[in-house]
Amino acid sequence: MKIIKLTNEVSLARDIETGTESQKESVHTIIRKVREEGDRALRDLTKQFDGAVLDRLFVSEAELENAYDHIDETTLKALRKAIENIRTFHYKQKRESWITTHHDGTMLGQKITPLDSAGVYVPGGKAAYPSTIMMNVIPAQVAEVEKIIMASPPDQEGNLSPVVLVTAAELGVEHILKVGGAQAITALAYGTETVPAVDKITGPGNIFVALAKQAVFGDVAIDMIAGPSEIVVLTDDTANPEYVAADLLSQAEHDEMASAVMVTTSAEIAERTKLEIEKQLSRLPRKEIASASIADYGAIYVAETMQDAVEAVNKLAPEHLEIITKNPHSLLGSIRHAGAIFIGPYSPEPIGDYFAGPNHVLPTNGTARFSSPLNVDDFTKKSSIISYSKEAFMRDANDVAAIARLEGLEAHARAIDIRKKKSDDE
């Protein structure tokens, strides 16, 4: 882990690979094939990329029921508690339609309507990500989306992980597509003989999933183009290097391009954390992945003052930010850009990933400057309501017509004038 003295000359920018031309062409080929061949393409591509021969594209009721035989009670209890916490948090985000009325008869408001349908992509194959299911499905359910279709790649036997199936079943997800990759994104975006097209697609995936989401955006809504995972830990001389090292490695083990960064005002804590990272790395099961991440995208920045450190954090605009300082709450108001903020030594990032309640689908690669975590609003749309009485219309007519003519739109102005003249003649 590199230790770098933070100065004005130090660049905090991070270059992220957004896909090679070959990868982009592969994705466009898959999209064309699925749009032309439908279900047959999904079966062919699943066999090609996942080695699985699918008798049916969707998970059966029997598969869902049998999955419970492979889950112990402790795991099931943990999943249910996490679901409860996440649902409780997201219910607080729910907004209602509203209308205001004025004495002149004007009514103005906003109508909030849930999307008709949503597609949730869950990475799979050799790994299982129940937290991804919860974080994407629950806000859609709280928003009252009528149809939710989940898609996840199967193993070579054509099965999904029991924990994935049980999590989906606990949430009441009825439509689970055993297809992954760009082909799943295409099916969700445009539909096939058996897969209905959805209004919005959410959920993370590899570069091919990300490129497919980018390609179909506009025909369907998406949540975001997620980059590699990131964490920044902001510390002073009170931080425990063991905690900080463990938290940095918790992100570094995601993949080789994950970014684990520490910003500190203490040179001593920087050195001790570096040594602790090396110590913990030697015992980590995913040592090779984490080592590559730390070597290529990890850094410890030592700042002169806490103000300088906070400014560096805002420039980084991290996906995850941990504040482990003497008075961490006092710094919260200074943080302008971060996807999720974890305050204090007992709020490590995994608490938010799995259990606390806030969503872990977060903006990456600096996009926290203008983006928010996945939330209930992402599964709704808003319509403005405008109702003018005759009295209110007559009061504002001349002003509206004047602005229309200012823009050179005479027909707009005449749509006002014709009503005003009619009313004046009455």
Automatic annotation (TrEMBL):
It is an enzyme of class 1 (oxidoreductase). InterPro entries: Ald_DH/histidinol_DH, Histidinol_DH_CS, Histidinol_DH_monofunct, Hstdl_DH. Pfam families: Histidinol_dh. It comes from the Bacteria. PROSITE patterns: HISOL_DEHYDROGENASE. Catalyzes the sequential NAD-dependent oxidations of L-histidinol to L-histidinaldehyde and then to L-histidine. Belongs to the histidinol dehydrogenase family. This is Histidinol dehydrogenase. It comes from Alteribacillus iranensis. The lineage of its organism: Bacteria, Bacillati, Bacillota, Bacilli, Bacillales.
